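Chain A, query sequence.
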Amino acid sequence: MIRLSRLYIHPVKSMKGIRLSQAYAENSGLVFDRYFMVTNDQVGFITARQYLQMLLFKPIIFENGIQIQTPDKQKATILYKDFINHRLPTEVWGNHFTAFAVPAKINQASFKALQKQCPSDIKLEQFRGNLIITSAKAFAEDSWHTIQIGEVIFELVKPCSSCILTTVNIDDGSQHPTGEPLTILQSFHTDEHGEIDFGQNAIAKNSGLICVGDTVKILTKKQPKQYKTVKTTKRQIINLKKETTLLIDVNGTEYLANNQIVILEQLEKHGLKFPYSCRAGICGCCKMKLIAGEVIPLTKTAIKEDGVIQSCSCIPKTNIKLLLG
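Chain A, predicted structure.
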Protein backbone atom coordinates (compact mmCIF):
# COMPACT_ATOMS: atom_id res chain seq x y z
CA MET A 1 0.00 0.00 0.00
CA ILE A 2 1.39 3.39 -1.02
CA ARG A 3 1.77 5.78 1.90
CA LEU A 4 3.09 9.21 2.79
CA SER A 5 6.36 8.42 4.56
CA ARG A 6 7.87 11.88 5.14
CA LEU A 7 6.63 15.43 5.13
CA TYR A 8 8.69 18.62 4.86
CA ILE A 9 8.09 22.34 4.63
CA HIS A 10 10.68 24.92 3.61
CA PRO A 11 9.52 28.19 5.22
CA VAL A 12 12.26 30.29 3.57
CA LYS A 13 13.14 29.62 -0.05
CA SER A 14 16.68 28.21 -0.39
CA MET A 15 17.05 27.46 3.34
CA LYS A 16 16.81 24.20 5.31
CA GLY A 17 13.53 22.34 5.47
CA ILE A 18 11.58 21.32 8.58
CA ARG A 19 10.36 17.73 8.91
CA LEU A 20 6.79 17.42 10.22
CA SER A 21 4.38 14.65 11.18
CA GLN A 22 1.40 16.50 9.70
CA ALA A 23 0.63 19.65 7.72
CA TYR A 24 -2.38 21.59 6.50
CA ALA A 25 -2.69 21.92 2.74
CA GLU A 26 -4.41 24.86 1.06
CA ASN A 27 -4.93 25.78 -2.58
CA SER A 28 -1.81 27.93 -2.32
CA GLY A 29 0.31 25.05 -0.97
CA LEU A 30 1.29 23.65 2.41
CA VAL A 31 0.93 26.12 5.26
CA PHE A 32 4.26 27.86 5.91
CA ASP A 33 5.96 26.27 2.91
CA ARG A 34 7.98 28.82 0.89
CA TYR A 35 6.20 31.67 2.67
CA PHE A 36 9.35 33.80 2.79
CA MET A 37 12.25 34.63 0.51
CA VAL A 38 15.33 36.82 0.73
CA THR A 39 15.36 39.77 -1.65
CA ASN A 40 16.81 43.25 -2.08
CA ASP A 41 16.36 46.27 -4.34
CA GLN A 42 19.45 45.55 -6.43
CA VAL A 43 19.23 41.91 -7.51
CA GLY A 44 15.70 40.84 -6.53
CA PHE A 45 15.32 37.25 -5.34
CA ILE A 46 18.49 35.97 -3.61
CA THR A 47 18.91 32.22 -3.92
CA ALA A 48 21.16 29.38 -2.85
CA ARG A 49 21.95 28.92 -6.52
CA GLN A 50 24.08 32.05 -6.02
CA TYR A 51 25.06 31.50 -2.36
CA LEU A 52 25.24 27.78 -1.57
CA GLN A 53 25.69 28.42 2.17
CA MET A 54 22.06 29.56 2.35
CA LEU A 55 21.13 25.86 2.35
CA LEU A 56 22.69 25.58 5.83
CA PHE A 57 20.57 28.38 7.33
CA LYS A 58 17.88 26.94 9.59
CA PRO A 59 14.46 28.65 9.90
CA ILE A 60 12.41 28.23 13.07
CA ILE A 61 8.73 29.19 13.07
CA PHE A 62 7.19 30.90 16.11
CA GLU A 63 3.65 32.09 16.73
CA ASN A 64 4.64 35.73 16.23
CA GLY A 65 7.59 35.49 13.88
CA ILE A 66 10.43 33.54 12.35
CA GLN A 67 13.99 33.01 13.51
CA ILE A 68 16.92 32.27 11.21
CA GLN A 69 19.89 30.38 12.65
CA THR A 70 23.23 30.40 10.82
CA PRO A 71 25.69 27.46 10.76
CA ASP A 72 27.83 29.20 13.42
CA LYS A 73 24.74 29.51 15.69
CA GLN A 74 24.11 33.21 15.16
CA LYS A 75 20.42 34.07 15.24
CA ALA A 76 18.17 36.69 13.73
CA THR A 77 14.50 36.98 14.68
CA ILE A 78 11.93 38.73 12.50
CA LEU A 79 8.50 39.44 13.94
CA TYR A 80 5.52 39.38 11.62
CA LYS A 81 4.47 42.81 12.86
CA ASP A 82 7.80 44.22 11.67
CA PHE A 83 7.13 43.37 8.04
CA ILE A 84 6.19 46.46 6.08
CA ASN A 85 2.48 46.59 5.44
CA HIS A 86 2.57 47.00 1.67
CA ARG A 87 3.71 44.76 -1.14
CA LEU A 88 6.98 45.37 -2.96
CA PRO A 89 7.56 44.11 -6.51
CA THR A 90 10.23 41.47 -6.96
CA GLU A 91 11.34 39.07 -9.63
CA VAL A 92 12.21 35.38 -9.59
CA TRP A 93 14.40 34.38 -12.57
CA GLY A 94 12.98 37.20 -14.69
CA ASN A 95 9.33 36.67 -13.74
CA HIS A 96 7.30 38.90 -11.46
CA PHE A 97 6.43 36.75 -8.44
CA THR A 98 2.67 36.25 -8.19
CA ALA A 99 2.34 32.45 -8.40
CA PHE A 100 0.76 29.85 -6.15
CA ALA A 101 3.10 27.66 -4.14
CA VAL A 102 3.41 24.14 -5.53
CA PRO A 103 4.51 21.30 -3.24
CA ALA A 104 6.93 18.82 -4.76
CA LYS A 105 6.17 15.11 -4.41
CA ILE A 106 8.99 12.54 -4.47
CA ASN A 107 8.75 8.76 -4.67
CA GLN A 108 11.30 7.02 -2.41
CA ALA A 109 11.57 4.11 -4.87
CA SER A 110 12.57 6.57 -7.61
CA PHE A 111 15.20 8.02 -5.30
CA LYS A 112 16.57 4.56 -4.47
CA ALA A 113 16.76 3.73 -8.18
CA LEU A 114 18.77 6.91 -8.72
CA GLN A 115 20.88 6.20 -5.65
CA LYS A 116 21.88 2.77 -7.01
CA GLN A 117 23.21 4.34 -10.20
CA CYS A 118 24.91 7.31 -8.57
CA PRO A 119 28.62 6.84 -7.79
CA SER A 120 28.40 9.23 -4.83
CA ASP A 121 26.45 9.27 -1.57
CA ILE A 122 23.30 11.36 -1.87
CA LYS A 123 20.44 12.22 0.45
CA LEU A 124 16.76 12.57 -0.35
CA GLU A 125 16.73 16.05 1.22
CA GLN A 126 18.96 17.35 -1.59
CA PHE A 127 15.87 17.40 -3.83
CA ARG A 128 13.93 19.61 -1.35
CA GLY A 129 10.63 17.75 -1.77
CA ASN A 130 7.57 18.27 0.43
CA LEU A 131 5.70 14.98 0.16
CA ILE A 132 7.74 11.77 0.22
CA ILE A 133 5.87 8.56 -0.58
CA THR A 134 6.83 4.92 -0.17
CA SER A 135 5.79 1.48 -1.52
CA ALA A 136 5.28 2.66 -5.11
CA LYS A 137 7.34 1.39 -8.03
CA ALA A 138 10.25 3.54 -9.17
CA PHE A 139 9.07 6.44 -11.35
CA ALA A 140 5.43 5.27 -11.20
CA GLU A 141 4.57 8.87 -10.30
CA ASP A 142 5.38 9.93 -13.88
CA SER A 143 2.00 8.51 -14.97
CA TRP A 144 -0.15 9.76 -12.06
CA HIS A 145 -2.55 12.63 -12.68
CA THR A 146 -4.61 13.02 -9.49
CA ILE A 147 -3.97 11.45 -6.09
CA GLN A 148 -5.51 11.69 -2.64
CA ILE A 149 -3.51 11.92 0.59
CA GLY A 150 -5.56 12.15 3.78
CA GLU A 151 -8.28 14.74 3.24
CA VAL A 152 -6.63 16.36 0.23
CA ILE A 153 -6.77 15.69 -3.51
CA PHE A 154 -3.67 16.75 -5.42
CA GLU A 155 -3.28 17.27 -9.14
CA LEU A 156 0.19 16.44 -10.43
CA VAL A 157 0.57 19.27 -12.91
CA LYS A 158 4.11 18.71 -14.21
CA PRO A 159 7.43 17.06 -13.34
CA CYS A 160 9.95 18.91 -11.17
CA SER A 161 12.96 20.19 -13.09
CA SER A 162 16.18 19.53 -11.19
CA CYS A 163 18.83 22.22 -10.77
CA ILE A 164 22.32 22.71 -9.37
CA LEU A 165 21.03 22.67 -5.76
CA THR A 166 20.60 18.89 -5.97
CA THR A 167 24.41 18.63 -6.14
CA VAL A 168 24.97 20.42 -2.83
CA ASN A 169 25.80 18.53 0.38
CA ILE A 170 23.12 19.53 2.88
CA ASP A 171 25.48 19.01 5.82
CA ASP A 172 28.36 21.30 4.82
CA GLY A 173 27.12 23.29 1.81
CA SER A 174 29.80 21.95 -0.54
CA GLN A 175 28.98 21.28 -4.17
CA HIS A 176 29.77 17.87 -5.64
CA PRO A 177 32.85 18.36 -7.86
CA THR A 178 31.45 16.42 -10.82
CA GLY A 179 27.81 17.44 -10.43
CA GLU A 180 26.25 14.31 -8.94
CA PRO A 181 23.46 13.26 -8.75
CA LEU A 182 22.41 15.65 -11.53
CA THR A 183 24.86 14.13 -14.00
CA ILE A 184 23.60 10.57 -13.64
CA LEU A 185 19.95 11.72 -13.56
CA GLN A 186 20.53 13.62 -16.79
CA SER A 187 21.67 10.40 -18.48
CA PHE A 188 18.25 8.72 -18.26
CA HIS A 189 15.59 11.27 -17.23
CA THR A 190 16.05 14.17 -19.67
CA ASP A 191 13.09 15.31 -21.76
CA GLU A 192 13.08 16.56 -25.35
CA HIS A 193 13.70 20.14 -24.19
CA GLY A 194 16.73 19.21 -22.09
CA GLU A 195 14.94 19.44 -18.75
CA ILE A 196 16.17 16.97 -16.12
CA ASP A 197 13.13 15.85 -14.11
CA PHE A 198 12.75 14.20 -10.73
CA GLY A 199 9.51 14.12 -8.75
CA GLN A 200 6.24 15.88 -9.52
CA ASN A 201 4.80 19.33 -8.85
CA ALA A 202 1.42 18.94 -7.15
CA ILE A 203 -1.39 21.44 -6.56
CA ALA A 204 -3.93 20.90 -3.78
CA LYS A 205 -7.48 20.97 -5.17
CA ASN A 206 -9.01 21.45 -1.72
CA SER A 207 -7.94 22.29 1.83
CA GLY A 208 -7.32 19.67 4.49
CA LEU A 209 -4.95 17.85 6.81
CA ILE A 210 -2.34 15.38 5.63
CA CYS A 211 -0.33 13.17 7.99
CA VAL A 212 2.70 10.91 7.74
CA GLY A 213 1.33 7.37 7.36
CA ASP A 214 -1.69 8.43 5.28
CA THR A 215 -2.60 6.15 2.39
CA VAL A 216 -1.88 7.56 -1.07
CA LYS A 217 -4.75 6.76 -3.47
CA ILE A 218 -4.14 7.00 -7.22
CA LEU A 219 -7.37 8.50 -8.60
CA THR A 220 -6.51 9.10 -12.26
CA LYS A 221 -3.54 8.52 -14.52
CA LYS A 222 -2.04 10.25 -17.55
CA GLN A 223 0.37 9.51 -20.37
CA PRO A 224 3.86 9.90 -18.87
CA LYS A 225 6.39 12.26 -20.40
CA GLN A 226 8.90 10.52 -22.63
CA TYR A 227 12.54 10.60 -21.57
CA LYS A 228 15.64 9.87 -23.59
CA THR A 229 19.03 8.38 -22.87
CA VAL A 230 21.69 11.09 -22.92
CA LYS A 231 25.44 10.69 -23.07
CA THR A 232 26.66 12.98 -20.30
CA THR A 233 30.01 14.47 -19.39
CA LYS A 234 31.00 15.23 -15.84
CA ARG A 235 31.91 18.78 -14.84
CA GLN A 236 35.65 19.23 -14.78
CA ILE A 237 37.47 19.99 -11.56
CA ILE A 238 39.55 23.09 -12.31
CA ASN A 239 42.35 23.94 -9.91
CA LEU A 240 44.30 27.00 -11.05
CA LYS A 241 46.62 27.64 -8.14
CA LYS A 242 47.82 31.03 -9.37
CA GLU A 243 45.06 33.64 -9.38
CA THR A 244 45.33 36.12 -12.22
CA THR A 245 43.51 39.44 -12.47
CA LEU A 246 41.60 39.70 -15.73
CA LEU A 247 39.00 41.89 -17.44
CA ILE A 248 35.56 40.89 -18.68
CA ASP A 249 34.13 43.27 -21.29
CA VAL A 250 30.33 43.08 -21.54
CA ASN A 251 28.85 45.12 -24.39
CA GLY A 252 31.73 47.62 -24.12
CA THR A 253 31.87 47.96 -20.32
CA GLU A 254 34.83 46.38 -18.51
CA TYR A 255 34.70 44.59 -15.15
CA LEU A 256 37.55 43.26 -13.02
CA ALA A 257 37.63 39.48 -12.89
CA ASN A 258 39.88 36.49 -12.19
CA ASN A 259 40.64 33.00 -13.47
CA GLN A 260 39.07 31.21 -10.49
CA ILE A 261 35.29 31.73 -10.66
CA VAL A 262 32.70 31.17 -13.39
CA ILE A 263 31.74 34.19 -15.46
CA LEU A 264 28.12 34.40 -14.27
CA GLU A 265 29.09 34.61 -10.59
CA GLN A 266 31.78 37.22 -11.24
CA LEU A 267 29.43 39.50 -13.13
CA GLU A 268 26.72 39.10 -10.49
CA LYS A 269 29.22 40.31 -7.88
CA HIS A 270 29.50 43.51 -9.90
CA GLY A 271 25.73 43.97 -9.56
CA LEU A 272 24.76 42.81 -13.04
CA LYS A 273 21.54 40.83 -13.45
CA PHE A 274 21.30 37.99 -15.93
CA PRO A 275 18.70 35.30 -16.55
CA TYR A 276 19.56 31.90 -15.15
CA SER A 277 17.86 28.74 -13.93
CA CYS A 278 19.83 25.54 -13.41
CA ARG A 279 23.34 27.06 -13.03
CA ALA A 280 24.63 23.63 -14.04
CA GLY A 281 25.31 24.18 -17.73
CA ILE A 282 22.11 22.47 -18.83
CA CYS A 283 19.26 24.92 -19.45
CA GLY A 284 21.15 27.52 -21.51
CA CYS A 285 19.42 30.51 -19.88
CA CYS A 286 22.72 32.23 -19.09
CA LYS A 287 24.25 31.97 -22.56
CA MET A 288 26.47 34.77 -23.87
CA LYS A 289 28.41 35.34 -27.09
CA LEU A 290 32.21 35.13 -26.72
CA ILE A 291 33.67 37.75 -29.08
CA ALA A 292 37.32 37.64 -28.00
CA GLY A 293 39.54 35.84 -25.51
CA GLU A 294 39.59 32.33 -24.09
CA VAL A 295 37.55 30.56 -21.42
CA ILE A 296 37.90 27.24 -19.60
CA PRO A 297 34.71 25.16 -20.00
CA LEU A 298 33.61 23.01 -17.07
CA THR A 299 31.59 20.75 -19.38
CA LYS A 300 31.99 19.78 -23.03
CA THR A 301 28.69 21.48 -23.88
CA ALA A 302 29.58 24.82 -22.26
CA ILE A 303 31.00 26.18 -25.55
CA LYS A 304 29.05 25.97 -28.80
CA GLU A 305 30.49 26.07 -32.32
CA ASP A 306 29.05 29.55 -32.93
CA GLY A 307 30.96 31.00 -29.96
CA VAL A 308 28.00 30.99 -27.60
CA ILE A 309 29.06 30.00 -24.08
CA GLN A 310 27.15 29.09 -20.94
CA SER A 311 28.39 31.64 -18.43
CA CYS A 312 27.58 29.44 -15.42
CA SER A 313 30.00 26.80 -16.68
CA CYS A 314 32.94 28.79 -18.09
CA ILE A 315 35.87 30.39 -16.26
CA PRO A 316 37.88 33.20 -17.92
CA LYS A 317 41.35 32.08 -19.03
CA THR A 318 42.34 35.45 -20.52
CA ASN A 319 40.72 38.85 -20.84
CA ILE A 320 37.43 38.27 -22.64
CA LYS A 321 34.80 40.23 -24.54
CA LEU A 322 31.15 39.19 -24.34
CA LEU A 323 28.09 40.28 -26.29
CA LEU A 324 24.58 40.20 -24.81
CA GLY A 325 21.29 40.68 -26.58
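The mean pLDDT is 88. The chain has two domains: 3-221, 245-316.
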